[in-house]
Amino acid sequence: MIILTCHSGFEDIVAKEAEGFDSRPVELREGRVIVEGDLELIYRFNTWSRTAHRVLLLLDRFRVHGLREIYEAASSVDYSFMRSEQSFAVHGERHGVHPFTSVDVAATVGQAVIDSYRRSKGMKLKVDLGSPDVMIEADLVHDELFLSLDTTGGSLHVRKWRRYNHPSSIKPSLSQTLLIFSGWRGSPLLDPFTGGATIPIEAALRWLNAPTHTDRNYAYRKLSFYDPEVERRERSSHPDPIDEPPCSGCIVGVELNLKHHKGALKNVKEAGVSKVVDIVHDDSMRWEPGARFPYIVTNPPYGIRSGRKKHVVGLYERFARRLPRLLEKDGVVVIVTTEHKQMRRALESAGLSVVDERHGRHGKLWVKAMKAVLL
After folding, report:
1. Alpha-carbon distance 147 to 26, whole Å?
2. I need a labelling partner for 282 at 20 to 30 A (CA). Which of 20, 30, 158, 234 fits?
3. What domains can you pick out in the chain, each with its CATH number?
4. CA–CA dist 188, 203 (Å, integer)
C-alpha cells in the first residue's frame, strides 16, 4: 500500500489523479489517500503526481491503546530495508484525544525501531533528527497507528520554477487540484487574478506532459530496494498524457500589479512555458479577450492580508458580472476563496450555477473551491 499526503478536503481529487496512474485508491482519510499498487508506483507518483505532497510506503497499520501497544506494534515491523550504516528518524503525528503527545509517539516508535533492528541484525541503528538517511512516519489517528516510510523527502509541492513569490501565492499542488476539479484537460484557459502565474504555469506544464520535478534528491534513492532502471523507465513517459498538442498563448493570465506581472513573467520563463502562457498586464475587470474561454481557474484576493474584506465583496460582484464576457456558454469557472458565501451570491446573481464545491485547507486557511457553469 502507498499513502499520498495532500491538501485536506481535496482527497477525492487526488484519488482521481492516482486512478489515471494505473493505481487503485482504496481509502480516503483527512489529508491522505491510500492506494493499492506495487513498488513501481513509488517512482511514478514521485515523478508525475502534481497534487500529492509526499509518497509514503505503508509498512503496517495497527489498532492500539496507549504507548505500550504502540511500542509492541512498531517492534513487530521488519526494518531490514535500512542498512546498518544508515541513520534514521521518526516523525510522529497524533490526531484525536490521547494522554500523550506526538513527540511521545515518535520517541516510542523510535525506540521500537532500534530494539527490533538490534534483535534481527545484532546492530544498533544511528538516530539523526536533523538529516536522517531514512524517515519513518508514525501517524496515530485516534486508535489506529499507521507506520510508513517516506520515499519523497522535501514536499513535492515545492517547485523549482518559482523564482518570484507572490505574497498571497497559491501552492502549485492546489493549483493542479483545482485544474482537475474543473475538468480541464488541454484547452484555452484563463486566470484573471494570476499573481505569480502559478495556475497558468502548472496548467502549461501539465499540457506539455512535463515531469513535476526534473531534478531532485528523492528519499527513495537511499533505500535498499531502490532500482535505478525502474526509476528511469517510470520517468520516461507520462502515465496519463494529454494528447492534444498545446497552442501558443492558449493559457492566459491577467495581472494588474506591475511588480507581480514582472514576477509572473520571471516564473513563466523559469518554467520554460513562455510559448504556451501569455501573461497580460491589465485590469481583468476591464480587459477584453480576443475570444471567450471554455475554462477559468483562479485564486482571487481574499482581503485577509490587506485587511480589506469589505472591498473583496465588491470585487467579487464585479468579477462575477464580467464572467459572461470572459466565458463561453456552458463554460466552467473554478474559484477558491475563504469568502465563499460572498462569492456564491455573486456568481448566482450573475446567472451562473454552482454545480460542485470542496471545503478544505490551504496552508493555515480553510477555503472553499467552487465550480460554476455559465448557463
Report:
1. 17
2. 158
3. 2-150 (3.30.2130.30), 172-210+244-374 (3.40.50.150)
4. 10
